[in-house]
Amino acid sequence: MGALATQTVDTTKRLEALRSLMSSSEHNVTAMVIPSEDQHMSEYIAACDERRAYISGFNGSAGTVIVTLKDAFLFTDGRYFLQAEKQLDSNWTLMKSGLPDVPTWQEFLSKNLEKHSRIGIDPTLITAADAESLETSLKAKESHLVSLTDNLVDFIWEDRPPRPANKVFPLDVKYSGESHQDKLKRLREELNKKPYKAMVVNMLDEVAWLFNLRGSDIDFNPVFFAYAVVTHDNSLLFVNTSQVDDVVRTHLGDPVQIKPYDEFFPYLRGLGGEVDLSDELQVLVGDKCNLAIVEAIGRERITILRSPIADFKAIKNETEIEGFRQCHIRDGAALTRYFAWLEEQLNSGTQLNESQAADKLEEFRSELDLFRGLSFTTISSTGPNGAVIHYSPDPADCSIIQKEQIYLCDSGAQFLDGTTDVTRTWHFGNPTDEEKRAFTRVLQGHIAIDTAIFPNGTTGYIIDSWARRPLWEDGLDYRHGTGHGVGHFLNVHEGPQGIGVRIAYNSTALKSGMTVSNEPGYYADGRFGIRIENIVIVRDAQTPNNFGNKGYLKFEHVTLSPIHKKLIDASLLTAAERSWLDAYHAEVLDKVSPLLKNDTRALAWLERECSPL
Amino acid sequence: MGALATQTVDTTKRLEALRSLMSSSEHNVTAMVIPSEDQHMSEYIAACDERRAYISGFNGSAGTVIVTLKDAFLFTDGRYFLQAEKQLDSNWTLMKSGLPDVPTWQEFLSKNLEKHSRIGIDPTLITAADAESLETSLKAKESHLVSLTDNLVDFIWEDRPPRPANKVFPLDVKYSGESHQDKLKRLREELNKKPYKAMVVNMLDEVAWLFNLRGSDIDFNPVFFAYAVVTHDNSLLFVNTSQVDDVVRTHLGDPVQIKPYDEFFPYLRGLGGEVDLSDELQVLVGDKCNLAIVEAIGRERITILRSPIADFKAIKNETEIEGFRQCHIRDGAALTRYFAWLEEQLNSGTQLNESQAADKLEEFRSELDLFRGLSFTTISSTGPNGAVIHYSPDPADCSIIQKEQIYLCDSGAQFLDGTTDVTRTWHFGNPTDEEKRAFTRVLQGHIAIDTAIFPNGTTGYIIDSWARRPLWEDGLDYRHGTGHGVGHFLNVHEGPQGIGVRIAYNSTALKSGMTVSNEPGYYADGRFGIRIENIVIVRDAQTPNNFGNKGYLKFEHVTLSPIHKKLIDASLLTAAERSWLDAYHAEVLDKVSPLLKNDTRALAWLERECSPL
Hints:
- Chains A, B: Keywords: Hydrolase, Manganese, Metal-binding.
- 2 copies of one chain form a homodimer.
- The first copy, chain A, is α+β, with helices and mostly antiparallel strands.
- Chain A is built from 19 helices and 28 strands.
- Chain A has a 6-stranded mixed sheet with strand order 4-3-2-1-5-6, with helices on both faces.
- In chain A, helix 14 (318-347) packs across helix 19 and helix 16 (433-450) packs antiparallel against helix 17.
- The longest helix of chain A has 30 residues, at 318-347.
- The radius of gyration of chain A is 25 Å and the shape is globular.
- The first copy, chain A, starts with 11 loop residues before the first helix and ends with a helix.
């Protein structure tokens, strides 16, 4: 969440200029939409945000803009109602998504606009699949989507900051575990199966993974703006050439051609002729591809499928897995130093706000080997703020951490050898029985996932209820998933696997080598939030039998940070759960304490927190 | 499974006669299909079986017949390969369903038959939905389904036994808990919501439930051949009038019109004119309706949806629930008498086969109040036969029960006040460690379902993995669902709810008042089978919290029969699981022992089996 700005922008002139372009004979549209960013389409993360902020004045991180020749609407959700009310001027109508009787922006386009509307959209900002379903629902009013060759907001935006173009760097094979040559070979084998003539890679993390390159164009995600096309003979990387130096060129070697980013769409338009496409021989494109790619190649020449690179990337190799283990030991040391420091601060009566505390945690992390930044904005939250699931403290306006309230901290970092994401929940005073009981139920759900054994073919959808069962027994629950995939020195949220109630998680079986978070929680609105999150890796399990010859799987946790015993109601735990906790704490102490030789406060704290229950 | 007949029928003349009818100008078809019965379309249970047996000579309970002008094929599954090989003469080709490279009968029709085939089918023997998807797949060869006005097998079958037409009788409201007038009122309120002009009821158990009538036209299922049509003003029951006496007429009262069964389709063909149907005002038909109904009314005039009666029926009222409790106490007494008797027989060295034992169980049950027959063929199985999930002993050729093998008994009865279905697994000698460990894992899965608490909206698909988790820990699993719905003095298998891995179970949330079985198992092919099955009723749970205001649910078990302690490895159980078992046994003893005053052997056995672990 961005800072809660109170300054409003007068959007009158900007809207006038936009509408003039819209009604020009060249574009000829009666409405225009800038959809909210889709986190999964990382190729344009921030692009929507920026343009939405410019045209509307609202700079929250989620929202869809619809501008017609007369009116202007901003759709955003409950997290941003207050901010949007403050930032939007009188040209704008705020549409509060999620409230009863408020249509989605898609419904609004197909039901509230006039018949025969021509709705302009930048085809790089919508997936082909979303565009197709939107086009279908527009039929009722005989309206149409119109792909704009250029984004009209960019035309009227004089001082638009350029797209980030930071240096790209190679990720050594000692961290990635597989050369990009081998990855390209695997991809080509996949293309041969069907056969496809080529694959267009449009997800930034897939490009980064495929070529063992990383960047810093997007906060927290070590990726860079790029597209790639892989044919049987060629690999083309479309990237702003100013971002690529000789180190990168040497790393990639001759077989990979580097092309200017802006030549991507012209190249696609010529692709049909070049590789001899036909109904039988098609171009493979991932299912998150944007509409512009489909239009450039031609819908009849492409096959849209779940990207094979997403499936490759989801399964970590042994080098990546060992990297996950190692970076989590270091990360555990920084967490220990931070929590020990925080406890001392609060015990000594220091007034610390949530953001200052988060900064201290970042400071400890930044001293770690191979550290390359945070993996997301730290959620440092006291009392009621912990119940706001996506809370992040505004440095200019956040709460003082209260010793007598639950403190929830969800944080993570990027390292060359892996990515971390960990939540711990503390109470530095005297927790209530209610808080302890809820925390214990969450812990029991966490242990149920950690100790899970299940046959190959089982999805995260199937085992999600194991995490909820202890909470359900008390009539408690949480309104988020139990676990998301995690990239290896890549996006901290990564598909396609996950553990949760979203039916999409039922389409991907958990496989050995996949990483997921294990993060059940409980949130008492206006009072406190609880979450216990470790990263776990799916591994083969050695079971006494192997019914059905399927092979059975288990989880290996890599996160190493004590779970707060003071918040546990031990009477609720089974003997097996107690043993799990004690063994986990012994493991944490064993692995993390060697890194704390120079911080006696942290070491003493860790020894205390890791003692048997 | 029927008796394994070895006598074959010469089908040459029958096939000749059939083909002559097929190629007549009146029918003009090049192939004919008799699909395997669909258990859910109870209106014609047995009709397919009989005709298949007549034309092919194969009298197993599952199989599809396809006759072309030259060839004849029988498709059946692994349970019946041996029987079919023995029974089919040289006119027939056996298609072994489930083996690699053997097409389904639908694939066979759409891929193996000649182009432009005209495939005759009796439209009462296929659901409209199945016919629609079949018609689509036939397009590739420009073939077509042809609805035959009469079943051609019936024409050539001279001594065809008449359709069963046993007496129909009313079920007193003291058992049903709701008058048929009130049920009709509820149904009409449902019709009004949309609004629909009428509903056609084609499932036999739905007709029986709606009018509080029962019959005995189909083994084990207390239903009778009938259709019904409910409009806002009329209720029409189409039934062979010889089955209906004055008691039934008085019970139904004037507002229900009884019509001859054979007038059903002519009535439907006139329905459009009678109730003034239009695109807006349609006839509602359940999604299991047959093609003949759709063709008689006209596809454009009907709406096919999951039957609201199925949803009504699935939720038992308090009278039905109390009936379930009471009949299970009586049923538990018969089970006790049987297992005590069986143990004594085996200890004394009596040679008993599986079928003789099952007969004794039926004898004990038949002495119970309100008994109306078995609810399915008793599975009485020793050793390896227990691993055949749908085994039932052939009286003429079954195994002697071995004291040193696991004995699995799955059985149930129909009572005026409810339906039972219970599986218990015993060992009358010395079980192996492997058997005990597997039994204990199954028991732990059973307990996990029995003690489940979950929010409203949760489906049986979601909680199925709770039953499997203890087995998965040992690399074990079972290849059937965990639970099916159970009718109230109706079909022992009843939809739409259930607990299992079939995705269809994810479409129906478990609701208070629903009945399901809880029957995890484990099967070691060729050696033994284990299953522990109770019937449970979904009830509101009193949880300390009510997060999300959803309300939380639990299960109440009604089955009362001891779970074999000798087969339990107590070291695997948690303290909570031990307590559950002891409490369950105390409840069984408390409720069942008062009915055993005249059977000291049974009482002594029950006291021993119900003592604390």
